[in-house]
């Protein structure tokens, strides 16, 4: 298997005001003139200090010398970078709420956001952080129009509207950096949906107006108003309306195959559940992990155990609703758990220019986690995804630098039989012996426990 680490990501280059390069000790942002003076002025304001203290805006430190040709800021690194195509609906909403409330606070003090895309937000655990300080600019006092309105609608509101009303996956943002145009969504909506808020103002009317303007040349100039207070109130009302619309279209939790797995898993007795939790808790106590990847984390039972042990946790699952439920349950807990919708059999690829603007999931994992938890996952990879045992073992050894807590599900298990679907002959090579041989090439057994249901829990250490 090739190393997980792909070529380094490119410094950002789409913003004319500057670029950013991620290094081991921080994210370094180069700022071109004349934008350097403006951003330094903002960073010196009490508002900037408050936003950083609240954890809503990334901290900034000037590291270039006074006579340098270009201003350089250093930002602390977010522990694990994520992308919108890995977020659940409630994470999208949290990022949108941060963007809009931040913009509202800026407007009150004479500033604003010049752009508004989900890519400006990262999550530190379950807490969204606005990381693009170059999006902040002075506001023209007489201007009542937010020029980033259209971008917010295309990249935040319409993807969520298309997800909730049409079932279009949020993960399509992987290939739609600029979101959806109203004309793309309009034909797919029912007549009733077209006439309801927020589609009427953000999809229907813009689509109809686009048809009437077709073929015209020239572009309009934003209209200003004489009264600066009126301009500010109009702008704030626009932002409040967007916030209401975003909350309105974000769906509530839906039932799914795995969203209530922890409460409905009938193939575990209460005794086995308790034994499994004790084993994992003891393994975590022995490993004393700093950073944990929980594969198939579901609604976070074992992610929470890892967080309680003092670790930073990234919890991944293929079930969007399970991840959404986990994220919602983390609010106010202070636990450092980042839930992401990622399929280990089809992990997020690198994308963008030269495939180096966004980093693949596996590259982000490389060397990052000292412990990986993989419970009730192995048989899905083997049978459903048809990944060979030795390839799974090899990937596990790439994902962790020290510890692996894994569960072996025997061929007699009802969940194994369910996935097998009568193909016994085809998969008769999948045995406990084969598991021990494949994983034994990369790990040694620290502890193991056979539950009453014959599943075996292993705490493995990397060779």
TrEMBL record:
Q: Which Gene3D superfamilies match?
A: Vaccinia Virus protein VP39
Gene Ontology BP terms: methylation
E.C. code: 2.1.-.-
Output the Gene Ontology terms for molecular function.
methyltransferase activity
Keywords in alphabetical order, please.
Methyltransferase, Transferase
Decide whether keyword Glycosyltransferase is in the record.
Answer: no
Q: Is-annotated flag, keyword Transferase?
A: yes
> Any idea what this protein is called?
Class I SAM-dependent methyltransferase
